[in-house]
Structure formats: C-alpha cells, structure tokens
Amino acid sequence: MTERLITSLTNDTIKAVRALHMRKEREATGRFLAEGLKFIGEALDQGRAPVMLLVGQDARPHPLLDRAKAETLKAGGQIIVVTHAILEKISRRDNPQTVLGVFEQVYTPLDAIQPDAKPCWVALEQVRDPGNLGTIIRTADSAGCGGVILIGDCVDPFSVEAVRATMGSVFAVTISKATREEFLAWRASWPGSVMGTRLDATHGYRDSPLRHPALIMMGNEQAGLTDELAAACDLNVKIPMRGRADSLNLAVATGVMVYAVTDAAYGSSL
Fold first, then answer.
1. Quick one: 55 exposed, middle or buried, by C-beta within 10 A (0-12, 13-18, 19+)?
2. Per residue in 105-122, pLDDT tens?
C-alpha cells in the first residue's frame, strides 16, 4: 500500500507531527514541518524529498502533487491522507494548506563551508525573532549569498514560523550554527573581509573597501553586535538614519547590507 488514511487526531503519527511545533521535539527528531505545495516543490527542486507527505482528502489533483508523491515514495518516505480537521490541528490555522511535508533538518558544519563559492555570507549573533531569521534566509537566497551562520543562542531556523518566512529558501541556503568560540576560531581563516554593523561606527556601509568573499556580521535585534564579535571584524560600518527612527528592523538592515555587498560583486542593473 502506497498511501494510508488517518482520521483520528489521537493517532500516534499525527501527534508526532503536531509535536514538531516544539523546539525540543525538532531537536530530538532532527525533523521539521513545511506547509504547502509550493514549499514541497522548492524542496524537491533542491533534491530534498519529505520523509512524510500529508495530503488532505480534499487536495486537488496537481502535477506537482503527483511528483511529490512519487519522489516521497522513491526516497522511502510515507504518504498519509488526512482529514481537514487534522490539517487544521497540525498547521494551527483555520484555513490550512492541503499538503504538508515533514523533512530532515540539514546543518552544514563550519569546516565544510567553502567561502570562495559565493561573494557574500551572513553571520547572525543571537537572533531571536523567527520571522526575522526566515526573512534573512530568504533575502540571502535572493541576493546570491552563500549561506547563513547562526552564532550562539539563536532562534531555531526550522521552527514553523521561521520556515514560513523563508518562502522555501530554507531548502536552498546553507545553514550553519556554532558557539561564539567556535565561530571566532573559524573566522580567523576567513579569506576576505569581515564586516560588522554598529550604530557607533564612523564609516558608512558603502564607503569602506572590502575584499570578496565578504562575511557580514549582524547582531541581536535589541543589543546589536556584541563588543567581542565587533572586535573580530575587519571593519564596522553603519547604515545612515536620515529620519526620526534611530534603527532598522534586523531583517531590513541585513537586506541593505547584503545587497550592497552582492551588487559590488555581481554588478547591478539598477
């Protein structure tokens, strides 16, 4: 049998999938939840088949759904047909997606990163907001960055909220994580410029010379980059605040920095 039907909310498989909303369960299983056929398609395009594909009974036929089912089975995964009520409980939405996927998490070790593969990389210190992190991953993908490195106690990039904000880029972008000590030891061999952002910096983000590959370091939403990591940068820069606001949202600020660096590397048609 290639598909099985589950109608009970108390089924052990359904309870295990619902538990993936909790970080401790994601860490224990190494799995995460992605919602929607678009996300599933992004994963398949990156060679990532779900270990479990949950399909609503009212899901409409679609070529991408057929592909998802075929690739799930080929990879040894399960296909489970579920009720609308189960989809609501799993997604925690009144109007849920009709296709959900459970995937294996993928982290790339720091020593496996090849800096010269891309002109720009992003490192985030203790980022707390899953929406910010997901948006930064999506922006890094859009701009042609190599990946995102999480330093210290960061929010989980595989939380449902963060994954939603990536719009599928979670499958395309290299994601690494490290302690502050591990990162600083690894950073010592970085071949290009390491650039931090600080409100007290004297140089503007477009005014400082840099060598590619550039590593952009961004700090916590409230506190910014710590003194220890700022000291590890070749240069610290600021984004000018010309209005009344004294700071930018972390994801927006990271986007400004990323495009400034990648435009310099790739060239800009704007």
1. buried
2. 999 999 999 999 999 999
Gap between the Cα atoms of 125 and 252, Å rounded: 16
Q: What is the DSSP string of 189-243?
A: T-SS-EEEE-TT-SEETTSS---SSEEEEE-BTTTBS-HHHHHTSSEEEE----S
Per-residue pLDDT tens over the stretch 154-174: 999 999 999 999 999 999 999
What phi and psi, each to the nearest 5 degrees, are found at residue 181? -65, -45
Q: What are phi and psi of 177, to 5 degrees?
A: -145, 150
Is-above-0.85 flag for pTM? yes
Q: Is residue 91 within a helix (H) or strand (E), and if so which, with residue range? A: helix 84-91
Q: CB–CB of 123/241 below 8 Å?
A: no
